[in-house]
Amino acid sequence: xxxxxxxxxxxxxxxxxxxxxxxxxxxxxxxxxxxxxxxxxxxxxxxxxxxxxxxxxxxxxxxxxxxxxxxxxxxxxxxxxxxxxxxxxxxxxxxxxxxxxxx
Length: 103
What we know:
By secondary structure, the protein is α+β, with helices and mostly antiparallel strands. It has two domains: 1-30; 34-102, no CATH class. The chain has helices spanning 2-28, 82-86, 91-97; strands at residues 34-38, 54-56, 70-76, 99-102. Strands 2-1-3-4 form a four-stranded antiparallel β-sheet, with helices on one face. 13% of the residues are buried.
């Protein structure tokens, strides 16, 4: 009888602690950016803002340089899309938000 009383009185606090722990673990998880690499030789007007010219890639396989006339990569936060980051930008504006260059 005492065991049943103990279980009934302990159940809610245990559930509350488990729920709080799970909630904290999800809040603490770091949201990762998605890295896109320019995958075109097109340098015509507004070409850099064309989401079709970009691809998700492995940084180990991509060469970015300090100089060049094409963008190399863009890191897109999890709460945005590549299209929304590029929308309405001309080539110079895309180069300003890109990290690194490609020849």
